[in-house]
Design brief:
Length: 208
C-alpha cells in the first residue's frame, strides 16, 4: 500500500482558526474522500463549471426569445450577467491568494495559503468558482421566478458541497464562493434595474 502522507499536527497548530478547521476537516475525512465512489460522486459537481452554466443561460435566453416569453429572457440575461460577475470575482480571488487544493494536501501532506499570484491549478483553491457561478445563477433565476427559489438554491448548495469530495475545495472555499456568487448576482440585479429591463406583453423592453 502507498505511504499515507498526513499534514503534521505541528503544522496544523500554526494555522489560523479558519484554515485549521478546513485542513482538519479534510484530514478527518481522508478515508472517505479517497474512496473511489466518493471521488466519482464528487465529479458530479462539474456541472457547476463555467461552460455548462453559460450554456444553460444561453439556452434559456434562446428559448425565451423563440417562445416570446420576456420574463424568461430577462431571467436568462440576469443569469448571464451574474455569471460574468461571479467569474470576475473568483478570478480576482484566485489571482491574489495562493491556496493548496485538498487533493494535494491528501497526496503530499503539505498545505500552503498566502497572498500570491500563482497560475498553478494546485494552488488556486480559493475561492470556489463552481460555487460562485452556481449560486449566482440560482439567485438570478429566482429573482424572476421566486416560486423556484428553494429548489434552485438547494441545487446550488449541493453543487457547492460536491466540490469537497472532488478534492477541489475546502469548506471555506465553498463558503467564500457562495458569498462571491451572492455579490455577483446583486450587482447584476442592480444593472438590470438601471437599464430598466421589463417584460411588456410578448416583448422585453428597456426604460426609455
Amino acid at each position: 500500500m502507498p505511504q499515507v502522507r498526513r499534514l503534521p499536527k505541528q503544522r496544523i497548530a500554526k494555522l489560523s482558526l479558519p484554515e485549521r478547521i478546513d485542513v482538519e476537516f479534510i484530514e478527518k475525512l481522508r478515508p472517505v474522500l479517497q474512496a473511489p465512489t466518493v471521488k466519482w460522486i464528487g465529479e458530479l459537481g462539474n456541472v457547476g463549471d463555467e461552460p455548462p452554466l453559460l450554456g444553460l443561460s444561453l439556452a434559456l435566453l434562446a428559448g425565451g426569445t423563440i417562445a416570446r416569453r420576456p420574463l424568461l429572457q430577462r431571467a436568462a440575461i440576469r443569469m448571464l450577467l451574474a455569471h460574468l460577475f461571479a467569474i470576475a470575482l473568483k478570478e480576482w480571488g484566485k489571482n491574489n491568494v495562493d491556496r493548496t487544493r485538498p487533493n494535494k494536501q491528501l497526496r503530499s501532506g503539505r498545505y500552503h495559503m498566502a497572498k500570491g499570484k500563482s497560475r498553478a491549478a494546485a494552488l488556486r483553491s480559493f475561492p470556489s468558482g463552481h460555487t460562485a457561478s452556481a449560486w449566482a445563477l440560482a439567485r438570478a433565476f429566482s429573482r424572476d421566478y421566486p416560486r423556484y427559489t428553494g429548489s434552485v438554491l438547494a441545487a446550488a448548495a449541493v453543487n457547492g458541497a460536491l466540490q469537497i469530495p472532488r478534492g477541489a475545495h475546502y469548506p471555506g472555499d465553498v463558503v467564500a464562493g457562495g458569498m462571491a456568487g451572492a455579490i455577483a448576482e446583486k450587482v447584476a440585479d442592480l444593472m438590470i434595474r438601471m437599464i430598466g429591463l421589463r417584460p411588456t406583453g410578448q416583448k422585453l423592453v428597456a426604460a426609455a
